[in-house]
Amino acid sequence: MLEPSVVAALSAVLPSSALLTRPEETRPYECDGLTLYRQRPAAVLLPDTEAQVVEILKCCHAAQVPVVARGAGTSLSGGAMPAADGVVLSLAKFKRILTLDPLTRTAVVQPGVRNIAISEAAAPYGLFYAPDPSSQIACTIGGNVAENAGGVHCLKYGLTVHNVRRVRGALITGEIVEFGGEALDAPGFDLLALVNGSEGLLAVMTEITVKLLPKPQRAQVALAAFDSVEAAGEAVAAIIGAGIIPSGLEMMDRAATRAVEQFVHANYPVDAAALLLVETDGTQEEVASEMAAIERVLKANGATEIRVSKDEAQRLLYWSGRKAAFPAVGRISPDYYCIDGTIPRRALPQVLTQIAQWSSEFGLACANVFHAGDGNLHPLILFDAGKPGDKERTVAFGDRILELCIEVGGTITGEHGVGVEKLSGMCSQFAETERERFLAIKAAFDPDGLLNPGKGIPTLARCAEFGRMHVHRGELAHAELPRF
Amino acid sequence: MNAPLDLALRPADQDVKRVVQKLADDFGARAMTARATREQHGHGEGLADAGVPDVVVFPHSNEEVASIVRLCHGARVPVIAFGVGTSLEGHVAAIYGGVCMDFAEMNRVLVVNAEDLDCRVQAGVTREQLNAELKGTGLFFPIDPGANATIGGMTATRASGTNAVRYGTMRENVLGLTVVTAEGRIIHTGGRARKSSAGYDLTRLFVGSEGTLGVITEVQLRLYGIPEAISAAVCQFPDLKSAVDTVIVAMQLGIPVARIELLDEVQMDACIRYSKLTGFDAKPTLFFEFHGTGAGVREQAEMMQSLAAEHGGSAFEWETNPEDRARLWKARHNAYYAALALTPGRQAFATDACVPISRLSECVMETKADVVATGMTAPIVGHVGDGNFHLVILFDPKDPADRERAEGLARRCSARAIRMGGTCTGEHGIGMHKLDALVDEHGDAVALMTSIKRALDPLNILNPGKTVPVRSQKTERMSQ
User: Fold this and answer.
1) CB count in 10 Å sphere of residue B41
2) Which CATH fold topology does A97-214 show?
3) Where are the domains of chain A?
4) Most Cβ neighbours (<10 Å): which of A121, B261, B315, B325?
5) Are residues B279 and B408 in the same domain?
């Protein structure tokens, strides 16, 4: 519940239709794509101008009310889960593309613009916005920046951080700050990179300048089948090792292939142990010579079957299965748990073999889809929440996978973010000295910890509870911080 | 140009003495106090700055760096990391004295992972050394700021260079770091994984922090396969605008040129004389380099050639064999020295403007008109593919009026770039010379940068007086 004085102050800023407090109004906001965790907020605010955002933040700052910014709510790590005593600041009404300049190849957009809407608006100029998370028809650019979203094409074209020039946003004090700039390199500390992937902990975005790229003349995809997951993993390493950077390099194992084939009928070879999708784009000549090189490497690494798309319709058909992998798995299992970890590419065969072994040990099926080119794993653990013990075993299995990712030199989240889901994992991945830097940066932006509290960066207390805090010779760092 | 000195930041003499003595005890001959050594470590290239360290020490390991920083932290004495001193904005000047850490002896390539296209190097490895050691692997590290800088220095200044248009800057090519914090603790950021959304992006925060947030000791770099085919070409234009417009159209079409360099007629004249380039005229000129497969390179070059011809460019002069190519790029890299040689006895400083590509023509032409109006010699060169260009302003150091004219020209160039939505520092960084410009350009964000500096280096011992304005608490109190 908000103090009446806070509600009064917010009512002065927003019309009543943009200030939701009744349970039936706020319930739709109780979780995002990670439905394991739910919490109704004290209020949901729907501003439609930057001036309103500034006033809301000033008001919440003065009253020390937590603020959770929200885009489309497609986060898979609980990044937009509300705080019980706080407000959800929805940017759903910020959905205008403000400018689109084909000469500088940039667009200035509001944070609530959907990812795919940018590419649609840019298409008449022969341009597109490269990062393409699977949820691109729904997810917003503001959420993409907050999570540093990736996607199939980020192997060649980079993550969100590589494709955003400038972010305008408000600090918790309501002060407007510009991060980055329209030119290549903004001077001083790279605050733009800090805001990217900051999961709403540093600022609330109000405007974003994205880079647009010329749409390649042509794209072609090869579908290759392998009779072992290891062989497919070796082929991925060999493609990259040969100096080829495909525009997409994705892998699916047999469980995932069978699930999607039943769903989209893409005529995938369902008996293969693993499938690779390797895409190349560019000019006609480049595509032809790169595809020839890709085919050579695939053959040399034991591909049992290679199909190369002949036209655009076929290319889209080959991709349709991969793009539909999540809903397809949703059809064959009551519940599934999507894991997001990244490993150095060379560790791929080793990690896949281990996952297969654990899958039989835990007695839980696991369908694997990966952004294989950049080593980003998405094992989907299939379980039945109605069966006693299933959920616990699933979480334990998932934790084992993530621990393994760290062990081989990777990270606990490639693109979904930490949110509430992986706070404990942060304690494993980062040493205390590193986590202290994170907390110091948070304090420089938001000393009271009002923006998206309890997400992204674990408190030192949390890691101590998790048994990872190492106090050396009784020298307790940041003794001023609340613990336990 | 320089921010005023904040004398309260100068440590007490006895603290400095204690630190120097301790370093002499611990490091023996690797801690040097000879005046000549210290002076040599007090400045980069460009204008000389007043700022000589009290001692220069040559660490060998992360642990030694950490011990030096801990010592400085305890005594509140400034500590400045030094690569090979090629920075242009006074980054290494020890304006408050203190300890200079020279990374010359931390110069090992630690590991090359050919399959993952990455490597890990100590901060003192130079760019040319790395590429020499990569010979035989089929890989290379593309970032090329001209000078043979260290990887540590290039990381700290977020260097870019002639082929940023294709390969990006250090921002895109540093995967992870080992950093010694202000308290002298060793931390690791990023890693071998190609993507991570765990925690704040400390790696990129340290990239470009100019030694003010931590001391970079190891760098994990992205490597690239040496392209199957490389070719370079030179094209000359009747006027500057035609050359710039050619670049703009090429960028808008997305032709993946690996390098495009602009030299105006004054710079071309200087390079022809200095580097003895034959067969060229003193006209506005573009240097191109194309990377890719044999067919891809041919295709790119044909597109580029027809674009240039539409803008009145000459037929391409091709340099396909590696020696000729190297000669051409060496001439480009020596542009600064070639400009200096135009008028002996003068000094030069280089401005560093970067604007959105759509404003490039306007910005370059206005700048050129300004140069002509002042009657000064100030050639224009630039990595124009990413909107970045430099004005190399020659002035008579003995004539204060001439220096004032030179500084005025530079100031107007910065202001013009900022007015056009650009920046006054495309790649050289802030150092001590551009603090004012940073405030002009990034008003609100500067306060945040200062908060971050205070959060990570509360005692302000890491390269004080650079990159962000931080005043000592004492001075702050006095001004209130």
Assistant:
1) 23
2) 3.30.465
3) 4-90, 97-214, 218-335+349-354+366-382
4) B261
5) yes
Q: Which residues contact A8 (CB under 8 A, 6 or more apart)?
A: none
Asked if B320 has any chain A CB less than 8 Å from its own CB, the reply is no
Please name the helix (run of DSSP H) or strand (run of DSSP E) that holds residue A278, with its range, or none. strand A274-282
B216: chain A residues, CB-CB within 8 Å = none
Token pair for A176: 């407007």
> Which residues are registered as beta bridge partners of B354?
B388, B423
Separation between Cα atoms, residue A259 and residue A255, nearest integer Å:
6
B194 touches chain A (CB under 8 A): yes
How many folded domains does chain B comprise? 3
A–B: how many Cβ contacts below 8 A? 260
Which pTM value belongs to this model?
A: 0.88
Q: Check whether residue B184 and residue B115 sit in a common domain.
A: yes
User: Tens-digit pLDDT profile for chain B (480 aa)?
Assistant: 455 577 777 889 999 999 999 999 999 999 999 999 998 898 877 655 568 999 999 999 999 999 999 999 999 999 999 998 888 777 888 889 999 999 999 999 999 988 788 999 999 999 999 999 999 888 999 998 878 899 999 999 998 877 887 888 999 999 999 999 999 999 988 865 666 667 789 999 999 999 999 999 999 999 998 888 888 999 999 999 999 999 988 888 888 888 899 999 999 999 999 988 888 999 999 999 998 888 888 888 999 999 999 999 998 888 878 888 888 888 888 888 899 898 888 888 888 888 888 899 999 999 999 999 999 999 999 888 888 899 999 999 889 999 899 989 998 998 899 888 888 776 777 777 777 777 777 777 888 999 999 999 999 999 998 888 887 666 666 655
Q: What is the CATH number of domain A218-335+349-354+366-382?
A: 3.30.70.2190
Which of these CATH numbers, 3.40.470.10, 2.60.120.10, 3.30.43.10, 3.30.160.20, describes A4-90?
A: 3.30.43.10
- By the 10 Å C-beta count (0-12 exposed, 13-18 middle, 19+ buried), A110 is classed as buried
In A, minimum Cα distance to B158 occurs at: A185
Q: Distance from B275 to chain A by nearest Cα, in Å?
A: 30
Q: Of A89, A63, A72, which is closest to residue A4 (Cα–Cα)? A: A63
Please, are residues A66 and A82 in contact by the beta-carbon 8 Å criterion?
A: no
B193, B224, B295 member nearest A285 (Cβ)? B295
Q: What is the DSSP letter of B162?
A: T
